[in-house]
From TrEMBL:
Keyword Nucleotide-binding annotated: no
SUPFAM superfamilies hit by this protein: GroES-like, NAD(P)-binding Rossmann-fold domains
Organism of this sequence: Parasphingorhabdus cellanae
Record key words, sorted: Oxidoreductase
Statement: the UniProt record of this protein carries the keyword Transport: no
Name recorded for this polypeptide: NADP-dependent oxidoreductase
Enoyl reductase (ER) domain location: 20-332
Gene3D superfamilies, sorted: Medium-chain alcohol dehydrogenases, catalytic domain, NAD(P)-binding Rossmann-like Domain
Length: 334
């Protein structure tokens, strides 16, 4: 009888002990109810925001996952079986499923969509053409209002969303500054993406480096939250914007942290601080994808991928998101 392997959430992780909270389980191949599909995974997306779903935090856009259930995450794969009129066997799809070899998905509840099989690398459905690309484009254009000549700062600039935000800001004609951990990542950002300056948040004086930016930072695309904001706020330009899409520094525990020490700068510099999540613009996916695909085909934007093989190695890949062990998008190939 065919079987399915999946990762199960057994308890709430404490600090960095994610591996002690999940276990790799085996089950008989799941049966489908009406309206469901079975997706044979090709790639699983590793996303830092899912760390918050493992906690007990109730005031999130995603309620906490129940203990004893399959870990949820984005899946790219083919329909292996369908009891849904909108999907047929063989369709290439992307949506929220499980960290599993085969994911049972209810399309209406998971954002499941058919995706283009004609692109040269289907991984880009988790890269330029995926939620990371959508987030970068929406955050820069709609939330931060970036225009040509603006000084744009991107945190976690070598991460999955950060690398795309840097490239899109460059396309928009901005001057890009990036924050990344370690000299290797900083050299990569400057040499490969051509940003104006990469600042090593582990070794450099962030505030001192930002103080050198003529005119200040017009737009801060923030993926991490946390104390770095205190280095940024005093160096923002008048009427600058902070677009906050991630809290990487605070996903452990209950995800809460102290407010910024330099909170007064929001008033003194008349700043606009706005949080945004992908659910805010899911209905704009087709429009965002069209623009991103055009840039991708023109060779103006790309995603580096960090790929780990095997369902059994999911936690090894996942750990890279929190240790800085990756450049670009972390995936698991099933």
């Amino acid at each position: 009888m065919a079987s399915n392997r999946f990762w199960q959430l057994n308890r709430r992780p404490v600090d960095d002990d994610v591996s002690g909270a999940l276990s790799l389980e085996t089950e008989a191949m799941p049966e489908l109810a009406d309206g469901q599909v079975l997706v044979k995974a090709v790639y699983l997306s590793m996303d830092a925001g899912t760390r918050m779903w493992m906690t007990e935090r109730e005031d999130s856009y995603q309620p906490p996952l129940e203990l004893g259930t399959k870990m949820v995450g984005l899946v790219l794969g083919h329909i292996a079986a369908s009891r849904h009129a909108g999907f047929a066997e063989g369709d290439l799809v992307r949506g929220f499923g499980q960290w599993a070899e085969h994911a049972v998905i209810e399309p209406e509840l998971s954002g499941l969509v058919k995706v283009d099989t004609g692109i040269s690398d289907i991984k880009q459905h988790f890269g330029v053409l995926g939620f990371n690309g959508w987030t970068a484009l929406w955050g820069l254009q709609e939330t931060a209002g970036v225009e040509a000549g603006h000084n744009v700062l991107v945190s976690a600039a070598a991460g999955a969303t950060g690398v795309l935000a840097c490239q899109i800001a460059k396309i928009l004609g901005a001057n890009i500054y990036g924050l990344a951990g370690g000299p290797d990542k900083c050299r990569w950002l400057e040499s490969q993406l051509g940003i104006a300056q990469a600042i090593d948040y582990k070794n450099d004086d962030i505030a001192a480096e930002l103080a050198k930016v003529e005119g200040g930072i017009d737009a801060y695309f923030d993926n991490v939250g946390g104390p770095i904001l205190d280095d940024v706020l005093p160096n923002m330009a008048l009427y600058g914007r902070v677009a906050l899409c991630g809290l990487l520094a605070q996903y452990k525990g209950d995800g809460r942290g102290q407010g910024p020490e330099h909170f007064d700068q929001i008033l003194m510099k008349r700043l606009r601080v706005e949080g945004f999540f992908s659910p805010d613009f899911m209905d704009q996916g087709e429009r965002l994808t069209q623009q991103l695909k055009e840039w991708l085909e023109q060779g103006r934007i790309d995603t580096p991928f960090d790929v780990t093989d095997g369902i059994e190695n999911v936690l090894t890949a996942y750990d890279k998101l929190f240790t800085g062990g990756n450049i670009g998008k972390v995936l698991v190939r099933i």
